[in-house]
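Quick one: structure for this chain?
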Amino acid sequence: VECLAESSLSTLVNTFSLPGNSPQTCQEIPPQQKPSIPTLDFVPSTEHEHTLASIIQRLEWENELLCQCAIELQAANVLNEAYCAVLCEQLAFKEEKGKKKKTASGWLMGDGMPVLLTGDDFYERVVQWEKSQEEAAAAKQNRKAAKVMRDSKLADWIKKCDEWTAEIKRIEETWDKAKEEWNEEKEKWK
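Got it. Here's what it folds into:
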């Protein structure tokens, strides 16, 4: 109990409460105090008193041990509830992710389990599924059209780049010719 009281779980020794949404309830264990009953501090003078004093001492020790076990169980319960809360969040996230993935891939009912196919709810699901399939097909067509347009613009740009490169080479050749002629004229005048 003393080790637990000095640790980071010291709040479990003095006060303890479960989360409000938990159906479990737990009785708070008060901190242990030595009894201050003067009759228990006597020195036994007879064999019978000695036996009773040893029984009282053993029962106090057992009571202290049981309180320590109860506190440890409360600490373990709090840690388990925190761990379970984290697992519940992770499981809910994974289930939501799985639902989104299956409905996006084109499954009408979602989980593959047999379902009675009657009623307005099923009809609404079919209408919604057909609408999502049409939207997916339209989005695919739009992507294809955008790719064709992008490819044609890229081909035009590459063609213009080739024309610019050819023009630059022609200008460089003209400049090199003019430079050679100028150097020849320069040599004549020396």
